[in-house]
Amino acid sequence: MSKPAISVLLPVRDAGRYLATAVGDALAQTDVVLELIAVDDGSRDGSRQRLEAMAKSDSRLKVVANAGVGPARALDLALKTARHDWIAQMEADDRCPPDRLARLAAALAQQPAWGGVVSRAAPFGFRSDGMRRYLDWQNGLTTPEAMANSRFVEIPALHQSGLYRRAALIAAGGFIGDPRWPLDIDFWMRWHERGLVVGKVARVLYRWRQHALQSTRTSPLHRLEALRWCKAHYFARGPGRDRPLDLLSVGATLERFAAALQAEGQSGLVAHEWRPGRPLPPRREGARRLFAFGTEVARARVLAMTGAFDPACDWFAA
To answer: Which domains are present in the chain?
Structure first.
């Protein structure tokens, strides 16, 4: 049996101190035919020179220079440069085991309906209880249905942990999305909006480096307001399109979600001040219900109260 041929996309911006380990992990993959396309996106710390030096000793590493236009455009440039039809990613400061791509490829080969497959992820570096809880939640989403149905709560997987069919990435619109919010949430919203399917390997095959200055913690695109706006945008033109909506939440969360949904053109919106434990407002005929609660405890109480939670009509957001 021939080995799967995979192109790995590696966007780089001032990641010199981590490059040796990230590139080393990518090139150490076993049982695959691999090319690694590193796009240096205007680094000023010598990252490009480090990459070019590493490329001299391994012809599988190809270095492309870009003008500092952001990770989404760097990934799209790498995708256009890639030769193979199976596409993986790697962040320039992350780690992965040598069997990562072979395991992902085996899972994708067994599921022709999947456009891609991701893995569970583990954090390392900067310690954060909040990030640990977040990854625990994310890692618990192990089926395509669970990931699709949870996309308005948070991103259902690290997109950089995945292996994708090129045709699916093109169908999703590539990596360049709406610049008003982060690449990762926009990618998954577009992916699921187009009806694409992603599976997950129930094994940790990706290690996500945490540090105090990473964009997840510092970029204004990751502010709660931007993320809420993104969720409202895609909900109003997706599950909420041309259907009345009952929004259930409390306080400022209810007020801000209602305002965002109305601004995005959600029709027939009725906002209910409601918390789990109180009687549910009667569902209007034909209406979707969106429960906006940020904690797993609150969402579990909602499920306990509603009983049969119809994923076609009932949604969570956070």
So the answer is: 5-218 (3.90.550.10), 223-317 (3.40.1010)
